[in-house]
Write a structure and sequence with these properties.
Layout (H helix, E strand, L loop, with lengths): L2 H35 L2 H32 L3 H31 L12 H21 L2 H31 L1 H5 L3 H37 L7
Helix pairs in contact: 1-2, 1-3, 1-4, 2-3, 3-7, 4-5, 4-7, 5-7
């Protein structure tokens, strides 16, 4: 394959990965909206959209494999292809977590912990994802480190939210008087799962930033 055609394929791969990230971000945003509005129909839309992302993942996985197998890239090109492959894997997993939000939105809800701001945490993870993909698109190493720093704040917010839920469950009498204990525990379980899933979204955003940094500078500082 002539070098010019090969470079075109590499650029096409970058564009495809960025397109997949946009679809995944839309899914995550819809999942958060479905959860906030307790919109079961929107939740179903999020769940149905996962199939498109799975197809995109398989298509891009094939492109990465072909570029490695047929072109035997070296140095920077190899790091770019390897990073792209790892990034689409993290994107696919974020989409799975968005699907979880869609599932939670279909379940009956009652506001038991108004002080837990799930939407704020969700917005922060979306920002992390956007910044991580911008780092990949623009080869911006500074943004890679900024994403890792933002994850510390998201982790702290998730830990504080989980602690608040557990503490209130133990201490607040009105929770025991709010109705059926089993129903209350279901709401608590769903909220804790939501917090956990959003924390994992942040972790995947950091993975994307880490792979981007390795791609840009051959620096594995953020890899774990």
């Amino acid at each position: 394959m002539p070098r010019e055609q090969y470079q075109t394929k590499l650029e096409g791969l970058r564009d495809d990965v960025l397109y997949m990230s946009e679809v995944v971000a839309d899914q995550l945003r819809m999942g958060l909206n479905a959860l906030e509005q307790q919109d079961g129909e929107l939740g179903e839309k999020v769940i149905a959209g996962d199939a498109e992302i799975n197809e995109l993942y398989l298509e891009l996985e094939g492109k990465c494999t072909d570029l490695i197998a047929l072109q035997q890239p070296v140095a920077g090109d190899l790091r770019f292809i390897a990073a792209s492959f790892k990034i689409i894997t993290d994107l696919e997993r974020i989409a799975d977590l968005a699907t979880n939000l869609g599932e939670y939105a279909k379940q009956p809800a009652r506001e038991v912990f108004p002080d837990v701001n799930v939407q704020r945490i969700g917005d922060d993870t979306l920002t992390m994802l956007d910044d991580a993909m911008a780092a990949y698109a623009e080869s911006d190493s500074d943004r890679c480190f900024a994403v890792a720093e933002a994850d510390d704040e998201v982790d702290a917010a998730c830990e504080a939210a989980s602690d608040l839920v557990v503490r209130d469950l133990i201490e607040r009498d009105e929770l025991r008087e709010a109705g059926d204990t089993e129903e209350t525990l279901q709401h608590v379980s769903r909220l804790l799962l939501t917090i956990r899933d959003l924390e994992r979204v942040g972790d995947h955003a950091v993975n994307i930033a880490a792979r981007s940094l390795y791609m840009i500078e051959n620096d594995d500082e953020l890899l774990y």
